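2024-03-11 09:14:02 INFO worker-7 job=invfold-0412 stage=load source=structure_tokens
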């Protein structure tokens, strides 16, 4: 069983009893040392694996939880000790992992931690040259009967996103506090191992925010549905400096590790709506993220791998900004987002897309560098998550296979949807000059720099026309050269 398959009721372990099989789990030291992982990401995975192994042993299963240089080495050492019994594994969530297990003679069964299998997604995709998430989302709603009244969506509309784009509230409201648990001896042992095995680990140590067993994950699901989901919808795209999660669920780490199943999240949200405890707009917005977007990303990853690591349609050639890895920056939104990431290993989707991704897109950051950094730095990171979200959504590096337009914006969007600009020395209304917001400067330069590629995109027509009308475009582009240089040097 792999470290992101920590469930009793899926895969080869489903319906099996103690004595019928032996469970092998491997902590790979090479994997742990392969990237500068966030400490809380490493702790979450390792502590969750150890607790799950202990739960299986308490149930009576024989568990071989071993530390080995690699997963393959752990498998071979296990075979050397126990002979050559058949080895069965649920399909890994990575293309490389599946290839390795197959080459090692492991019988690989389908992955059951999603609500749309690879085969079902491939049939839906068919010959669509330009798939749309909205079409897939409706397909999922219909086939699973979620938020449906017969053949029609509850409330008469499929998508209530227009109701969920309000700017940050200015009423000083209190947001529900997260569920936090105390660390124990197992946590402390994991942290000691991280210090010994992972010299490049970064970020603050865990503080009990992230659950490392199913019971803790279920408590956080209940808390979200009862206390947080009713507030989720309207401000899900807003950012507040003094509120790190607002009404976001923060459940993705548990779903990605198997501690929760996406079906549990969708069912709990719908039940709360049907009981009159949660508004439809909030319920639909959350269901769209879980049943729609997450499953869509998973499906596209398997359809487009392994070549999907390579696209760079816009010719991005800049390094990952040092501001992302701790260099000081005067950009208030960037500095705050990176600080929050260091503290918790998590920021919500708008900070990922419209702060980190937007800056990387308009500055021309090399796609794979951003993928690897996000993969290692977020507690819910994984290649299957980050590749489509970065290559396709954030950086438009696939040329529009996934997203119909680049998600680029200037400082005006950040001023409207965050409360950072009032405390920042840069002015989001200025394109040139020393006080011009880097997002604004880079936005217009990006349009000019990418005009040939974007000219045929009907969704970019108005933006490109506005860019061509700028009387100071030459000055903007000159300023952009300076901004990109300082961003790459870590002096912005």
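2024-03-11 09:14:09 INFO worker-7 stage=emit residues=492
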């Amino acid at each position: 069983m792999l470290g992101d398959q920590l469930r009793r009721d899926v895969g080869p372990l489903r319906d099996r009893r103690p004595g019928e099989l032996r469970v092998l789990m491997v902590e790979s030291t090479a994997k742990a040392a392969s990237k500068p992982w966030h400490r809380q990401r490493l702790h979450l995975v390792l502590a969750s694996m150890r607790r799950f192994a202990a739960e299986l042993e308490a149930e009576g299963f024989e568990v071989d939880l071993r530390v080995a240089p690699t997963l393959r080495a752990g498998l071979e050492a296990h075979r050397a000790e126990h002979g050559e019994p058949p080895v069965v594994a649920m399909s890994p969530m990575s293309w490389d992992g599946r290839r390795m297990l197959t080459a090692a003679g492991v019988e690989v069964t389908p992955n059951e931690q999603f609500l749309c299998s690879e085969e079902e997604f491939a049939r839906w995709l068919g010959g669509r040259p330009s798939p749309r998430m909205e079409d897939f989302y409706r397909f999922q709603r219909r086939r699973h009967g979620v938020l449906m009244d017969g053949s029609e969506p509850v409330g008469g509309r499929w998508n209530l996103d227009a109701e969920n784009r309000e700017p940050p509230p200015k009423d000083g409201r209190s947001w529900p506090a997260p569920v936090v648990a105390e660390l124990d001896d197992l946590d402390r042992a994991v942290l000691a191992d991280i210090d010994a095995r992972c010299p490049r680990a970064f970020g603050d140590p865990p503080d009990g925010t992230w659950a490392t067993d199913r019971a803790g994950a279920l408590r956080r699901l209940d808390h979200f549905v009862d206390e947080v989901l009713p507030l989720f919808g309207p401000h899900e795209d807003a950012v507040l400096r003094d509120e790190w999660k607002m009404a976001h669920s923060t459940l993705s780490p548990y779903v990605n590790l198997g501690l929760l199943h996406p079906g549990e999240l969708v069912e709990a949200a719908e039940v709360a709506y049907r009981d009159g405890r949660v508004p439809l707009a909030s319920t639909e917005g959350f269901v769209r993220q879980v049943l729609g977007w997450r499953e869509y990303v998973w499906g596209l990853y398997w359809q487009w791998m392994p070549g999907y690591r390579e696209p760079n349609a816009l010719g991005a050639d800049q390094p990952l900004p040092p501001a992302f890895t701790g260099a000081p920056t005067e950009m208030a939104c960037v500095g705050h987002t990176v600080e929050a990431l260091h503290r918790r290993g998590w920021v919500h989707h708008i900070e990922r897309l419209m702060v980190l991704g937007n800056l990387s897109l308009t500055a021309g950051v090399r796609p794979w560098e951003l993928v690897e950094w996000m993969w290692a730095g977020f507690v819910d990171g994984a290649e299957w998550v980050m590749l489509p979200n970065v290559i396709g959504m954030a950086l438009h590096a696939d040329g529009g296979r996934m997203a119909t337009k680049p998600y680029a914006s200037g400082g005006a969007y950040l001023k409207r949807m965050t409360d950072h600009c009032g405390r920042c020395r840069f002015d989001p209304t200025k394109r040139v000059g020393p006080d011009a917001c880097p997002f604004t400067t880079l936005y217009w330069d990006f349009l000019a720099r990418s005009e040939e590629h974007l000219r045929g995109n009907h969704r970019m027509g108005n933006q490109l026309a506005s860019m061509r009308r700028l009387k100071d475009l030459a000055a903007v582009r000159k300023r952009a050269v300076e901004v990109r240089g300082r961003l790459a040097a870590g002096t912005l």
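2024-03-11 09:14:09 INFO worker-7 stage=report msg="Residues 195 and 201 are 8 Å apart (CA to CA)."
2024-03-11 09:14:10 INFO worker-7 job finished
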